[in-house]
Amino acid sequence: MIEPKLPKYQWGQRVKAAVDLHNDGSFPDAPAEGLLVGVGHTGEIVQVGRHTDANLPIYLVEFGERLVVGCLEEEISPL
User: Which Pfam families match (predicted)?
Assistant: First the structure.
């Protein structure tokens, strides 16, 4: 069993995209592989979850008013 990695960031924390975030199929109304959020865009962590298979933290980050994207730690950085 893989040991769980503790979250590096917390709910309510302001972060920015460290990489371009593309649609992995989670957004059916957006083009496949289309750009969702560009590098440097800021958002706020609205929930911290866990990827069950990899045992990694997943951060739901709200970028703008109606765009919530699931991010890995290496995809975001603190402000």
Answer: NifZ (PF04319)
